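Here is the promised in-class demo. Please do not try to memorize the tokens; focus on the logic of going from shape to residues.
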């Protein structure tokens, strides 16, 4: 079997890490769907409070989405601006 050099190993592990980082989008999606369902229920029970319920829902969704955005940023860094490759090449003197 052909030997795997360090750069290829770093790229392979980075791709796996990026995929795992994208799993972070599952949690916010589930949470936002649950919150939207509960907000619809609340508006159904108290239509006069629709404005307050919507404001609270949007604020909660924005906070919940931050973890998904952080996961996306980590994945993009690992795929396109990988600092580990630069470090590896500097260790080799290239």
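The designed amino acids, position by position:
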């Amino acid at each position: 079997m052909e030997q795997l050099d360090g750069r290829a190993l770093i790229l392979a592990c980075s791709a796996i890490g990026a995929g795992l980082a994208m799993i972070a989008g599952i949690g916010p999606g589930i949470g936002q769907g649950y919150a939207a369902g509960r907000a619809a229920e609340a508006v159904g029970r108290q239509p006069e409070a629709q404005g307050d319920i919507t404001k609270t829902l949007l604020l909660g969704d924005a906070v919940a989405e931050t973890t998904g955005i952080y996961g996306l940023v980590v994945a993009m860094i690992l795929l396109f601006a990988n600092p580990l490759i630069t470090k590896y090449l500097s260790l080799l003197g290239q």
